[in-house]
Specification:
alpha+beta, 24% helix, 82 residues
Length: 82
């Protein structure tokens, strides 16, 4: 889901919950609606990731969300990228 579409969903109250989730040393965003989970993607369709929690949080704030859960269960700060 691209940024423009996400802003539209957020402004219309469709997004019910935001989750900053870890995978290795990177973070991605999952946004939950009443019926599905959306994952933020790049313009090429790959999962959009961040190297720090604060950069992911800044992106959420720019979208218009001020509250999110943090899941660091799979966070491995020393893991190298593939």
């Amino acid at each position: 889901m691209n940024e423009k579409s996400l802003k539209l969903l957020i402004n219309n109250g469709v997004i019910k919950k935001a989750l900053i989730k870890s995978t290795g040393a990177r973070f991605h965003l999952e946004l939950k609606t009443a019926s599905e989970t959306l994952i933020c993607e790049t313009t090429t369709g790959k999962i959009k990731t961040w190297s720090s929690i604060d950069s992911a949080a800044k992106y959420l704030k720019r979208l218009g969300l001020g509250c999110a859960e943090l899941d660091i269960g799979y966070w491995q700060p020393k893991q190298k990228s593939f």
